Amino acid sequence: MGKIPKGSEKDHEGDEMCVSEKKEKQQDHSGVSRRKFLKAATLVGCTAVIANPSNASAYKEFEGWPDRYGMLTDFTLCVGCRSCEKACNEANGLPAPERSFDDGSVFNEMRRPTQDAYTVVNRYQDPNEPDKPVYRKIQCNHCNEPACASACPIHAYTKTKEGPVLYDPDLCFGCRYCMIACPFNVPAYDYDSALEPKIVKCVMCYDRIKEGGIPACADACPAGAVTFGKRDDLLKLAKKRIYQKPDRYIDHVYGEHEVGGTGWLYISGVPFEDLGFPKDLPNKPPIELTKGFLGAVPVVFTVWPALFGTIYAALKHRDELENNKTEHQVKEEGEK
Amino acid sequence: MSHNGTVARIDDFRSWFMDKLLMGMSWPEYMRKMLTPFNVLAAIILSVGIPVIGMRFIYGLSAVTHASHDYPWGLTLGWGLFGGVPLSATGFIMATAYYIFGFKGYKPLVRLGVLVGFMGYLFAVIYLLTDIGRPWRIYYPMLMGFGTASVLFLVAWHVATYLTVQFLEFSPAILEWLRSTRVRRWANMITIAMTIAGIILSTLHQSALGAMFLLAPGKLHPLWYSSYIPHFFLSSSVYAALAMVIIVSALVVRFMRKSTDTNFRDNLDRLTIGLGKGAFIGMFVYFALKLIGVAHDDHWGLLATPYGYWFALEMIGFVLLPSLVLVYGVKKESAGIVRMGAAYAVIGVLLNRINVSIIAFNWQMPDHLHHIIPPWQETAMVLAIVTIHILLFRWIVNRMPVVRKEPGYDEH
Are the C-beta atoms of residues A188 and A169 closer than 8 Å to each other? Predict the structure, then answer.
């Protein structure tokens, strides 16, 4: 957490001295009416209240690891050769596919990442030029604040400082809430395994990155459609391409802001919803949506015992009063 | 050790066994008594369902469910966890009404509520254990890794703690069955603390089950997705619990009359109407909250879509209508009509949970709804667990003082 610079407190004192406050001060010697005084007091109070939270939020927000890596896929360059699928399969030691990587018939259906494939390429129609196919590569997007990691009750997911989101099968008990939470439906589950089922998803070739290499799919792409690099640089590159060829691209870098930003960025010549991208995702990370609920938990833990304990005590007290009264009356009647 | 002593001890054990476990019958008598149509049906269901559960642990989940990469959760969790937990709020609702708010007249139904709640949670965990990939790691959120930012982490801890709390709440009945006096006194001393712990844990995790879906905007249909979803889940569990106590108590009187005492039977109709009143008030609150939810997000326009019709059917046909049946029953002072309304209301709660977890989830997927009809294996598995649930409930109510007073134990 960043510290507040020393100078900033002084600055804020200056901010609080708002215009109306100064005016009231100038009028001080010329006699202040009660109404004016109240008005001033209210204003001072208000500024104090408003100024304080802004002070509190002056700490630096964590915006992700600096220099983290990302990927950029340019759908206008992808030719659908599936070299990336093949390279991924080999680099990650995945089982051999049912149909070979040269078999174009896979494009007749829409596929998704599975327990045997970290990445797949699907074919779509360009809405403007129906004869021209558009290919979309799918894999984990390595979000800045991943929903899967927010969902996992055992902390099996880690957003590494290098950028890839990693999953540890040794911690997972298989609830699959990460799959429910992932806005892109990426994690796959090994349902066929009875004893050692696990989540399977792209790891952005973490081991290769650590050794200074680049992910297998980017390495294999003959068309230059998949680029590896620092996320910040890739974002600039994506915007530069759009800027230089505005006719070729739609003006949107998918992943710059979606669900708080993803590590994998996309640019395209056709609207992203035509390529099956979810279109109604909020720009804030999903974890922000549960923070309010989770924040209420400690309040319930502290307030409920006091509240319900008091209700119990109050009703018991009333019972006791009634009982005492009857006893007292009984005694009086006895004395008579 | 003398021979006579051993014989005497064996006799002691035999009479204890007959008294406690065979309900005072000898073994042949007991076995003859067990041959009822219901038990035959139960045996058939179990003989199919239990091997299927075995298959799940030999061939994996893919052999028995339609669970897929896009639809990780199906009937087992939709019914067992999301449907079962709101119907198990009975323990917290009845204990709170009786011990904290002083509704002393509802005494005959308190233990029943606690038992239904305890068993509901127990079986929610059992459904979970059949559905998660590696059930033997169920304790991992408590020991191996702490996903403190996860709503499910909260649910896991609360269900585990609340199961313990409810066991302690029910323990007086077990101790009376075993004729313990000292431990039973200790168990009484912690009642108020346990009840308040129950309120904390229940309010939090009933709502947390709804909050779990907050992470999935865009995947859950906007009419069901709302920032209010934790409140929806909590408030519907309140009336679900009241309705559930109405239904279960009626079934107990109908099918297990011998286990009830006159105090229970004589008061039941009157108490049923009282609970029905509570239930319809709860339903009005829930209905109003749901309306506020639609208004808050300004989703009125979505009502004129196919999913909107389905939503309207749920709200009018399965919340408003059953609540009106309850109002009518209460007004006519007819316990029978209240029971019908209660059953209707419970179906409505189940429908809502199935809608959120299965029908309105992933609504944008192509070919969505193909997975709604579960495979026969998953149905058999769920039916088997339901059957075991009922058998265990009957076993307990037949033996322990749940819907009757145990002679020799004072009021509490």
Answer: no
pLDDT tens digit string along B306-354? Answer: 999 999 999 999 999 999 999 999 999 999 999 999 999 999 999 999 9
Tell me whether A147 touches chain B (CB under 8 Å): yes
CATH architecture of the region B36-399: Up-down Bundle (1.20)
CA dist., res. A107 & res. A124, Å (int): 9
Q: Chain A, 317-336: which have a CB under 8 Å from a chain B CB? A: 319
Which one, of A57, A54, A88, lies nearest residue A71 by Cα? A88
**B385-406 pLDDT, tens digit each:** 999 999 999 999 999 999 988 8
For residue A257, which of A239, A275, A276 has the smallest C-alpha distance? A239
How large is the ipTM?
A: 0.90
In a domain, A108, yes or no: yes
pTM listed for this prediction: 0.86
Window A:150-169, CB contacts with B under 8 Å: 150-156
From chain A, pick out residues whose CB is under 8 angstroms from the CB of B204. 297, 300
Task: Choose among B241, B232, B200, B199: nearest CA to B213.
Answer: B232
Residues of chain B with CATH 1.20.1630.10: 36-399
| B314-346 burial code (b ≥16 CB/10 A, e <16) | bbeebbeebbebbbbbbeeebbebbbbbbbbbb
Residues A152 and A11 in one domain: no
pLDDT (tens, 9 = 90+) of chain A, 336 residues, equals: 334 444 344 444 444 444 444 444 444 444 455 555 555 555 555 444 444 444 444 456 677 788 899 999 999 999 999 999 999 999 999 999 988 888 888 899 999 999 999 999 999 988 888 888 999 999 999 999 999 999 999 999 999 999 999 999 999 999 999 999 999 999 999 999 988 999 999 999 999 999 999 999 999 999 999 999 999 999 999 999 999 999 999 999 999 999 999 999 999 999 999 999 998 889 999 998 998 899 899 999 999 999 999 999 999 999 888 888 766 666 666 665
d(C-alpha A112, C-alpha B357), whole Å = 22
Residues A51 and A73 in one domain: no
Do B203 and A304 make contact, defined as CB atoms within 8 angstroms?
yes
Smallest CA–CA separation between A278 and chain B, in Å? 8
Same domain, yes or no: A256 and A150: yes
| Set of chain B residues whose Cβ sits within 8 Å of the Cβ of A185 | 69-70
Residue A22: alpha-carbon gap to chain centroid: 44
Query: Nearest 5°: CA angle at A175, between A174 and A176?
Result: 90
Is B215–A112 a contact, with Cβ atoms under 8 angstroms apart?
no
* Chain A interface disruption, residue of B73, B76, B150, B411, most A CBs within 10 A: B150
- Does A224 lie in the same domain as A98? yes
Same domain, yes or no: A45 and A155: no
Half-sphere exposure for A269 (CA within 13 Å, toward CB): 18
Q: Between helices B151-177 and B107-131, what is the axis angle to 10°?
A: 130
Domain containing A41 equals 6-56
**C-alpha closest to that of A234 among A37, A30, A68:** A68
Residues 262-301 (A) with a CB less than 8 A from some CB of B: 278, 280-282, 286-287, 289-290, 292-294, 297, 300-301
